[in-house]
Design brief:
159 residues, mainly alpha, 2 domains, 0% strand, extended, membrane, SpoVA
Amino acid sequence: MSSKKNKKLTPTQQQYQEFAKAREPKRSVLYNCLKAFIVGGIISTIGQGLQWMFMKYFDFNEVTAGNPATAVLIMLSVLLTSIGVYDHIAQWAGAGTIIPVTGFANTIASAAIEHRSEGYVLGVGGNMFKLAGSVIAFGVFSAFVVAIIKITIQGLGGM
């Protein structure tokens, strides 16, 4: 794989690379960051509003209101993904939609929708976590490493 990176390009390939680079649209980094910030902030504000609603109307406390608020955000994300709206929002906002938990729900739901024609077990069940599976695996591994570090630090502090 690394030998392909060091491979010399033919003159035709070099010419094509220059041609493609000249026609590639210039992206405004500041504008894209601003859009991502605004949309991510809106999603987070909706989540905060849901948490407040669960505390005010359903007698949850500040700690326990986070779980149902997150569940509602996930359900909204899956619903918007299923009707095709979330993809348009993500296309415009970029990273602003993938950072909150809604982006994770979108990856799972879109993979499930894409493979539903192959059946529920082999299509939906087998392909739903292909994209999100690495996030789950690395998240579990990271939590394990952090827990080991915490236990080690606490063990050293008790000596």
